[in-house]
Amino acid sequence: MNYQEILEDIYKSIKPELKRGKVADYIPALARVKKEQFAMSITLLDGTNYSVGDVDKKFSIQSISKVFTFTKALNIYSKELYKRVGVEPSGNPFNSLVQLEYENGIPRNPFINAGALVVTDSLISYYKDEYRALEKILTFVRDISNNSSIDFDEEVAKSELEYGDRNLALAYLMKSFGNFENSVEKSVSTYFKQCAITMSAKELSRAGLYLANGGVDPITKKEFATLSQTKRINAVMLTCGHYDASGEFAYHVGLPAKSGVGGGILAIIPNVMSIAVWAPSLNRYGNSHAGTLALEEFTTKTGLSIF
Amino acid sequence: MNYQEILEDIYKSIKPELKRGKVADYIPALARVKKEQFAMSITLLDGTNYSVGDVDKKFSIQSISKVFTFTKALNIYSKELYKRVGVEPSGNPFNSLVQLEYENGIPRNPFINAGALVVTDSLISYYKDEYRALEKILTFVRDISNNSSIDFDEEVAKSELEYGDRNLALAYLMKSFGNFENSVEKSVSTYFKQCAITMSAKELSRAGLYLANGGVDPITKKEFATLSQTKRINAVMLTCGHYDASGEFAYHVGLPAKSGVGGGILAIIPNVMSIAVWAPSLNRYGNSHAGTLALEEFTTKTGLSIF
Amino acid sequence: MNYQEILEDIYKSIKPELKRGKVADYIPALARVKKEQFAMSITLLDGTNYSVGDVDKKFSIQSISKVFTFTKALNIYSKELYKRVGVEPSGNPFNSLVQLEYENGIPRNPFINAGALVVTDSLISYYKDEYRALEKILTFVRDISNNSSIDFDEEVAKSELEYGDRNLALAYLMKSFGNFENSVEKSVSTYFKQCAITMSAKELSRAGLYLANGGVDPITKKEFATLSQTKRINAVMLTCGHYDASGEFAYHVGLPAKSGVGGGILAIIPNVMSIAVWAPSLNRYGNSHAGTLALEEFTTKTGLSIF
Amino acid sequence: MNYQEILEDIYKSIKPELKRGKVADYIPALARVKKEQFAMSITLLDGTNYSVGDVDKKFSIQSISKVFTFTKALNIYSKELYKRVGVEPSGNPFNSLVQLEYENGIPRNPFINAGALVVTDSLISYYKDEYRALEKILTFVRDISNNSSIDFDEEVAKSELEYGDRNLALAYLMKSFGNFENSVEKSVSTYFKQCAITMSAKELSRAGLYLANGGVDPITKKEFATLSQTKRINAVMLTCGHYDASGEFAYHVGLPAKSGVGGGILAIIPNVMSIAVWAPSLNRYGNSHAGTLALEEFTTKTGLSIF
Predict the structure, then answer these.
(1) Class of domain A63-195
(2) What is the pLDDT of residue A94?
(3) Which of B197, B273, C102, D158 has the smallest CB count inside 10 Å?
(4) Which CATH code fits B3-62+197-301?
């Protein structure tokens, strides 16, 4: 069975699952998204793409953007970054303040909200202001996607900010511990714009290609991370990519991957391919319900887990 | 031995303790206060006052103001207030976010910071804007003190706001749970102004008189709380008035009392007197070190604990 | 209205409440107790007793026994006891391990289970073996009751031990921190026997008399605690006597008191009287539902709160 | 550079690190082990072994035994096992009770102590008594090692039990939640015997071979787990194998691995080899200090991480 057939098989078997779970509803802009949509797209190292479903439909990548800002910050700060954020699974929901308080404002990893806020804050510090930082983040995402049209959705970003009290709380708590450098309001607003980037499954699978190829885009030959950084980003995706269900995901799927509440998941098979899946309905951990199942079926069918 | 002699005895025995502990140093305006100062002042129900030490020296009443805003909110909302704040000791430091998160944004009691912020927020809601709310709080404190000159210190309030990130975090966390009604910035700023009210020990002991007399000022005959409300305010002072050392304080002193990081403590002996003590140096729980000892000596010498 | 009339009034108004809540059901021996029973009994300093309801019916005093063992341990160890147990409200359910772990095996107060286990353990250390310790505890309870017939219920004690896994967990956790001196099994078994002491409401109100009279039994003139110790026991009863509803109880009732899951409550009005109330059905905090209401009505009607 | 040269290089560069950290000292039997020892041994799928250092010196495998009992329990119970233990990283120290209490007695994963105790308890239930269960565990370890002489150290097991109060606390807590089936004392004692199994680095690397080959011993052809189970065991080793430093380990080393406080680590490179390393001195997370560094150097030198 070739990849295209496998994807089509998965699409068929996953269809009944699309109505289960529920779409993220904490902001109106996300709550409106129709449940029964699905797309899955893989891009091989030579650029070949196999896709199924609504592969050109744009969705909000949300927390998947954290992988890209983490890459960027790692480029800039290298080991220095770890004074401000760890690489340890949290054992707590994605937006918990408990652990952050016990651990003196140092977030456990760059993929929980507190950690991602610190990463964005560090980029704003480096680029001196939040507009330039956002511009650089967008440029980076366009570069790894080899697609200059990628942008964010103003309405979603605005809507998030309106309901963003908990993220403001996280940032102020870190600030009280001296682990936040810029204006909380400006940084959180930049963070929400980065989360509001929209991509299609096809675009997202293309964007992840550098992570499947040791940091170098195999088509454009641009280097986005060193080999060692790439392995480490993948490791953090595996241990921390699905909030408090990261262990479950590693157990069932066995791939480094990052999910977003928009229903997208980016998964990497090192040296083989980049995979994007999208199905807006979420399980109780905030990860795409059908997307997770589709990836599990994919690794089962292809035997391509990292374990 | 009469009260004056007892106070002078206490002053003498407490003097060596004044240099122990350390002055609140999280804001410059408080850090500058000289350690070796002390004042103790009692006001009996008939208005007689006995005082010792720097009794006319103004200090920042800080959290003691929470007793007054709580009284005010109880007047306005009665039982409805308890939907937004409890009356249970917290078992945690005064500014902890942990419990607040586990308990869905409902602070344990009105004397931890989160609870006091909710109380101030409720007053802003009632008085429609934060300036009017502040005006009403000041008027109330002037009324209970029978002294129209009481005011707050702008510099202290401004300084607090500059270092107020954790309080902003608390307020945003409560807002994310739907337990905060007004602008976080405006409410927190009002809260810091209320905390920056300055009073002398003599003024403070006069201000507490209504709590020693079932809610009615025994001199002016004005009613500031019902008998039942007064008993309950005193009960909350006893169980929650000294943060995570409330049990210790009840154990050693045995009086309803509220401390502030400015080094003041207001203590009530129901039906007998109101006591204010001030010594700026704090113990590790953030309560006046020498002030606590002075009160313990007072109840030991007079046998006037409530137990 | 005299005391007898007040008690009868309370009995009448409390009756409809007797069916609310539910009887402790974690052990068969307690689950069998009939819900709709009630007794209230007050003993004045001169020995006069007023009672209403099933005043001679024996019930399991359970955690109320902790007041008596705490008194005993305080007699023996004085301040040394506080190296092993605090006097601070816990802000957590009565049998929580969380706080105990964070605080290195030192229980917050002698009235949560961990604290009471440490107190019993300290008595076993002092009396060298668990039988002698139990004997001394029983003798003490007989002495304060002026009633040599007081005993414990073997069946209840056995039943508790069978379902006592969490208490064993608490004791082993303290042992792992070096805060438990004797065999865990033996100490926990002694503790359950002490909890299984049965008394009638009339007997219990008589037993508490020393706490209303500065430590000295006003009838037999025996001293069971110093004045200072007595005040402190009362203070701990007020701040910690009703688990994680101690603040609520202080707020509504305003008296030092200790509850047990058998449905009993012992309350003290310093210098006035000792009160016992019994109603087996519990509220969600594990305290007697109707008993709490009865005490609230009593302090409202008599104005006899300590605040 | 061939494997033997790589190992020798590592040995050389790791030597100065052997004196850092400290040997497990909670029991005398482990505290006595000399710090400056080191062994590293790899076994390829065809059975070829490369070793360096004290490769035949036996050490206490301690928590590494949890991998083997987990394999065994997965064989027996399959998915049913997950009703009693999860596969999620804990975000807490290995022996914490906090999370266990919040999560109603269901341990986060089989590699923290609580989870391993439940696994051993499940084996005792299956084999009806603790002697037979221990026998079966030993037989299993002998089978995967292809070495019938493997045994446990009575003295270490006895010593652990003497200082095993916290594990008894964990087991009793789980029992109180209904998640423990056999006598706590007997199960904990069996658990300590399993932890006291001694192996040399060479033996341990041989024992892990089935995990590098999809569950089947490539030499004896015996199947110890299905392919799917094997991938999942490896996934749990990656996400949970190093207590609260699992993320760090994945980040720096990038291999599924399990450490023990005896200083051993078993690491798996799927489809390539099994690695054992031993260096008794531990880092602050309780994992072998030099062992972790040796493995990091190994994956850096060979490029053989899974990411």
Answers:
(1) alpha beta
(2) 56
(3) C102
(4) 3.40.710.10
